[in-house]
Design brief:
The structure is a single chain. The protein is of the alpha/beta class. The chain has helices at 14-23, 31-38, 44-53, 66-73, 78-103, 135-146, 150-161, 167-172, 184-207; strands at residues 2-8, 27-30, 108-112, 127-132, 176-179. The chain has one domain (2-207): 3-Layer(aba) Sandwich (Rossmann fold). 56% of the residues lie in helices and 12% in strands. The protein has a five-stranded parallel β-sheet, with helices on both faces. The protein is globular, with a radius of gyration of 18 Å.
Amino acid sequence: MLRVGLTGGIACGKSSIAATLVKRGAHFLQADGLAHQLYAPRTDTYDKVVRSFGREILNEDGAINRSKLANLVFPGRIDELNAIVHPEVVKRQNGWMSEVEQSDPHGIAVVEAALLIEAGANKDFDKVIVVTCDFEQKVERFARRTNVPLQVARAEVERRSAAQFSDEEKAQRADYIVDNSGSAEDTERQVDLIWRELQRLASTATDN
């Protein structure tokens, strides 16, 4: 089985690229979704996060408010949060990949994670795909996704990007780059080329 990491900057279209890969037959896991599961009350991770960042990140019902947490950690304390959450996320995603390998030894398992390279998790994968796009497109997409004005979106994209490697730094560590700045058709062509290469590698890996 081939293990593929998928990452990129905020609002660059990682999830749409993931959906395109799933359509072609990839197994898929969103690592950031795993992190959100770990924030559930009465878990060790929940307790550690609340101890580190205070009860002001909680809703009235005691659940962690991810928006409040994000406002507190970006950009200066994201490493502190990652140190708490990342080890368990890695453990669970590696467990998931092992399960996929047992059920589909010839398959391709794709894990999407926003801070995959920053956290050093790229070493857990055979190949890494980095999705990029123009800064203004990130702002427009973030504004649409969160239903906020463009000036608010621009400030938030800048703030969150400060906690990540730049697109150029990510690209230097990528095996494949998808430039998601153009048309949907252009992006799909890029993904098709990558998918065919991944299939070839997966077949070669299992043959060996």
